[in-house]
Amino acid sequence: MNALSKDMSGPLALFANRLNTLAGAERQSAAGALARTGLPDRKVEAWHYTTLRALGKQDYAAPPMQVEASTVRSLLDGVLQAHSAMAALPRVVFVNGRHAPAFSALPDDVDLSFFADDPQFGQQAAPDRDPLVALNTALAEDGLVLRVPAGVDAGHVMLISLGVAGADPLSFHPRHTVVVEKEAHLRLICVQAGQGAYFHNPVTDIQVEDGATLEHLTLQTEGAQAVSLGTLYAHVGQQSVYDSFVLGLGGQLVRHEVHARLAATRGVVHVNGAQRLAGQQVGDITSVITHAASDCTSRQTVRNVLDGHARGVFQGKVLVERIAQKTDGYQMNQALLLSPEAEIDAKPELEIYADDVRCSHGATVGALDDDQLFYLRSRGIPEQEARQMLIDAFLDEAIALVEDATAQTFCRAVMAARFAGKGESA
Amino acid sequence: MPAVTQTREAVEKLGQSTYKWGFETDIEMDMAPKGLNEDIIRLISSRKEEPEWMLEWRLAAYKTWQAMEEPKWAKVAFPPIDYQDAHYYAAPRKKPGPKSLDEVDPELLRTYEKLGIPLHEQALLAGVEVPEGERMPVAVDAVFDSVSVATTFRKTLEEAGVIFCPISEAVKEHPDLVRKYLGTVVPAGDNFFSALNSAVFTDGSFVYVPKGVRCPMELSTYFRINAKNTGQFERTLIVVEEGASVSYLEGCTAPMRDENQLHAAVVELVAMDDASIKYSTVQNWYPGDENGRGGIYNFVTKRGACRGARSKISWTQVETGSAITWKYPSCILQGEGSVGEFYSVAVTNNHQQADTGTKMIHLGRNTRSTIIAKTISAGRSDSTYRGLVRVQPKASGARNFTQCDSLLIGDQCGAHTVPYIESRNMNARIEHEATTSKISEDQLFYCRQRGLSEEDAVGLIVNGFCRDVLKELPMEFAVEAQKLLQISLEGSVG
């Protein structure tokens, strides 16, 4: 495989050493696909607004097997202590992409195994279509493989991914699979956090079988120097529900890309989210919702609050295939710019091939409303506080869409802890 | 007249659904050999008796074009175009001497008749005087293939100080003006098709409205593609000085034929302080037959620069023709408080493909833009709205409102909406909304119950759907546009 290295230019070169020493046909073929396409740049339409410059110029090493326990413990506590209910929930903890049994509290009602023990790449995520999936396929070390048996209500499971790095960058590429079998129910809370210069490149393969429900919260509180580029595929069966929400608070560059496919009739997909970014952060929520069957519903509400030099990206495509008559699709993207240097780039997209549908999208961009500020100020509320109230309210309207009460409270607690008294800026 | 009767009459009048304007005019053509190279460009330039700087400009554009690649991002599919397999210059053979109306080929006059150029304009072309002040006159600069044959109302315009002439003439007679503005809004290297156009454009219109002048009439150009295998590369430049205003109409029809024809026009608008330009288009080029054979490829670059404070540029378009449309009339809102508008109806039927929309680039403070785009897809066609709203850091107080609605007729077509929204200013407000739906059963039932045929009912509903845009058109155009909508959708229901 040494022949590959000369094809690896740009950011891909940062992984060249590891890509050249792969074992197994699937990984080698993924590396081959990568060598042909390279990592995406702005010429690729799906990456028009997000560059991978943040990956830097230093090679990414494979993470060490041992990580100092106290560091992990303090990161984990940071996550769990945000809200009192969290510590009691069953959790699977990954450190630098590998399962860390010492910190996990495994759930009972589900079938649980790990990618490292029996690597299965699944069918949904295709390396030849998406270079980041290819990178993951080539380098995947471990991942959660979780199966909720038919008819079981498995309650909550937390999937906590911690990155621990120093100044030398390292990357990890977890491959998670979640299957919610027929008529089963799962509330999945994924948390990404960490410290140091790491690159987190997870691929998640989700299947919600007929009549099943998956409520899925993803909280992104990656480390300040971290790059996190996650790709998630969800296959939604007949009359099943995939209700997802992503709360993006950071990392240097974070992209959450969701491909949800309504594969059978009367399925429901929610791909909601909120981002609050500041400093030099870049946050990107990208989604493709495919209606591949009739009578399905999709809903998407995404809100961005951008301060400092932060840049928010929203790309949301709703694709309605010819067969997907009676589709009901709705998408709303709103952004609040708090500073003169902040930027939002939005591309809500409808691609529709069936005629008997109701699809709509809306987008708004603006600053805090002066009238609303005045209203609060005239009632004696200091400016700082008034701004904070308005920002909180703006984001809270999105967070209110999280139906699972525990997950919703968790979101609010994390926001409160992070942004209390931070309504400042120009 | 109630809208229902009007709609029904329009349908009856138009009769069958074949392309009404599908005829060919048999006039001897003066044609350059097929292919594109520096010699062809020199030939075009010398035929048009252009000054040296114009030739240099064309050759530079040709060099740029050679290094460029055809854009692939639009949602349209077509077989590769062989740019060497086309004639780049075709002119009706004309008699020497001044282009007086008497000398216009009678065959040509009959063409205008079939084109449906309004009666009073035809009369003018035929040399008959119209009593003064009877109705608002319209000046026509008819482009017959590549050479403008006649320009009417020139005298009235001259008195007002307005220059309205073929651009080839302007290059010779107003070189300073043309040199000052040509390529400043759409640079030659802006995109693949604008570079091609810059190298080989043969004709088009030039309009100059001096300071403080309200152009006394609406200006109109009828474009027409005639000779087989001649790409049309019009170039239009409209400059409106401080406090002046103009309304410009562009209408297009083309003869039916079986071969694809490439059309790559460039339109540049410049508006100074307090100036206003209204640019209206009804585009009805041959869309190809029911099986998608033939039809015009329409790859157009239209852009307006609001250079002055409080200037305004308004694009209104009704697009029913062409096999493939690739067109994004844009506004660069540079002057403080300048205004950009885009009103569009795009109809596709059979195998047509349209990727059209607009770009509003907000550079100046308190600039405003409005986008209303209505897309109707029928048959096996695909229609995409693609629009960009960009607010740059200095555009404080910028405001945009965008509404895109798509209507699907039949289950074999596609309608897509791809807006790009980019804001770098916290004091800008952008609102965008889009919907996609089919004609509601309730509305259809309501009309049918009152005795309208299904086709008439659809026509009525579609006209209502497009009302926001149609009402922006000048009156004569609005009538024509309504008819066009009807014809374009014939055979798509029932």
From TrEMBL, chain B:
Xref: NCBIfam families: PRK11814.1, sufB
PANTHER family: FES CLUSTER ASSEMBLY PROTEIN SUF, UPF0051 PROTEIN ABCI8, CHLOROPLASTIC-RELATED
Species this chain originates from: Acetobacter fabarum
The organism's place on the tree of life at top rank: Bacteria
Protein family membership: Belongs to the iron-sulfur cluster assembly SufBD family.
Pfam family, any one: SUFBD_core
InterPro entries tied to this protein: Fe-S_cluster_assembly_SufBD (IPR055346), SUF_FeS_clus_asmbl_SufB (IPR010231), SUF_FeS_clus_asmbl_SufBD_core (IPR000825), SUF_FeS_clus_asmbl_SufBD_sf (IPR037284), SufBD_N (IPR045595)
Protein name as catalogued: Fe-S cluster assembly protein SufB
Sequence ranges assigned to domain SUF system FeS cluster assembly SufBD core in this UniProt record: 223-465
Gene Ontology biological-process entries: iron-sulfur cluster assembly
